[in-house]
Design goal:
The complex is a heterodimer of chains A (about 110) and B (about 120). Chain A is mostly beta strands. Chain A has no helices and eleven strands. Chain A is globular and about 40 Å long. Classes of the chains: A mainly beta (about 110), B mainly beta (about 120). The interface between A and B is medium-sized, with 27 and 31 residues.
């Protein structure tokens, strides 16, 4: 089962630019999470936004949630080479499980 | 910090072998998960467990089994490895969501890249 779908599948930008990734989902949610995965490694949790929140910040990360459109976006400002990774959104499936999208592969060019 | 460890980063096995992948977490989490990740297919849930000796099938359980004898340890077993089980295997853990109000953050191990020849 696939709930979240990220867009674009791949994104390549210059260091210092902002990167925006989008996630769309199908059913009602209590929260939506974003994760990062460096090449060949496990996923790392970045941020969780609840359904009653519209925007959340963490450092250079800004996440928005529009429950009416069933979509979320992740903005990384002032990108750095170390931000090169794949980014996944995850939504709930039942009370204990998450369903992950296929991810956006972000490349930051020096 | 939550730490989830997996027994091997890289593993090479032969077709037909029985393979054990071990996962240990140190934060007393009730939930543990096994995923496989393949290019173009994303993360797919194989099995999960929300308590000792409890297990539930995920989306792709065929060819796999699991064992949870202790709260901190969740093992994935490939009874007879096949080449189509070559993949990246990821273990994760999370707190149990009481009342099912929301699904908590999952903490991932570093992954095991399994190659079956």
């Amino acid at each position: 089962s696939q709930q979240g779908e990220e867009d674009p599948q791949a994104l390549s930008i210059q260091e210092g630019e902002n990167a925006t990734m989008n996630c769309s989902y199908k059913t009602s949610i209590n929260n939506l999470q974003w994760y990062r995965q460096n090449s060949g490694r496990g996923l790392v949790h970045l941020i969780l936004i609840r359904s009653n929140e519209r925007e959340k910040h963490s450092g250079r990360l800004r996440v928005t949630l529009d429950t009416s459109k069933k979509s979320s976006s992740l903005l990384i400002t002032a990108s750095r080479a170390a931000d090169t990774a794949s980014y996944f959104c995850a939504t709930e499936e039942g009370a204990q499980k998450l369903v992950f999208g296929q991810g956006t592969r972000l490349t930051i060019n020096p | 910090d939550v730490k989830v460890t997996q027994s091997s980063r890289y593993l090479v096995k032969r077709t037909g072998e029985k393979v054990f992948l071990e996962c240990v977490q140190d934060m007393d989490h009730e939930n543990m998960f096994w995923y496989r990740q393949d290019p173009g297919l994303g993360l797919r849930l194989i099995y999960f467990s929300y308590d000792v000796k409890m297990k539930e099938k995920g989306d792709i359980p065929e060819g796999y089994s699991v064992s949870r004898e202790k709260k901190e340890r969740f093992s994935l077993i490939l009874e007879s490895a096949s080449t189509n089980q070559t993949s990246m295997y990821l273990c994760a853990s999370s707190l149990f969501s009481v009342g099912g109000l929301f699904t908590d953050t999952q903490y991932f191990g570093p992954g095991t890249r399994l190659t079956v020849l």
